[in-house]
Amino acid sequence: MERTESSDDPGCHFESVQQAVPFNGRPVADFLDRLAQDLAPGLEFSVVVVDDDAVRQANRQYRKTDRKTDVLAFPDGEHGNLGDIMIAAGRAAEQAVEQRHSVETEVQILALHGLLHLKGYDHNFDDGEMLAVEGRLRQAYGLPLGLIERATGVRREDARSDVTTATSRSFGTGECGSEVRDTGSDPRAGVEPYGGNFGIRPSAHLS
């Protein structure tokens, strides 16, 4: 049966619409409430956990990249709506095993990464700014290594060290996905929105 979990905070809307990976949505919803209050007060955004094929379809449709990835972020920026985050349940489960933590924790890490993209950060073009912000926030929220830290080779045992001195690089592969810059738009602004699955808009900021 399809399972849906929603945050009580009107600023964040969360649901899981897949059956392949069972997980407890309540700690994720509680975490998203904190993110909404801390990072997006007065704004709205949505997080939906779907099966891997749905994310691959969106990746193919909006990025012309026919492969699975873990998280896609689709900024909106109009009328107080930051946009939408799509998380692949199967990939989240696989990465949770690799990183030796729970699926719930991995979904939180992916949601934080996606929200930073919604707020305009882009680790491909910012000389380490998103890496530093993500590192500080995941430490503040008690999370293990973030996606960019993993991709840049930060070791688990060094996860509490200062990440602001680490350098950013462009990722062709890895858990952040294959990055494609929209050449017709500023890397901190979404392209013209249009409807899609789950109300998702295409954007330059996809992970």
Secondary structure topology:
Layout: E1 12-16, H1 25-39, E2 44-50, H2 52-63, E3 71-78, E4 81-88, H3 89-99, H4 103-118, H5 129-140, H6 147-151
Parallel strand pairs: 1-2, 2-4
Antiparallel strand pairs: 3-4
Helix pairs in contact: 1-4, 3-4, 4-5
Task: Write down the CATH topology.
Answer: Collagenase (Catalytic Domain)
Q: Outline, from the CA principal axes?
A: globular
Rg, alpha carbons:
15 Å
- CATH-level-2 architecture: 3-Layer(aba) Sandwich
Order of the strands making up the biggest sheet: 1-2-4-3
Order of helices and strands: EHEHEEHHHH
| Uncertain segments | 1-9, 157-207
Strand count, sense and closure of the main sheet?
4 strands, mixed
Total beta strands: 4
**How many structural domains are formed by the residues?**
1
DSSP strand content? 5-15%
CATH class: Alpha Beta
Distance between the termini: 29 Å
Count of helix runs: 6
* Secondary-structure-derived class: alpha/beta
**How much helicity do the residues have?**
25-40%
| CATH homolog superfamily | Metalloproteases ("zincins"), catalytic domain
Mean pLDDT score:
76
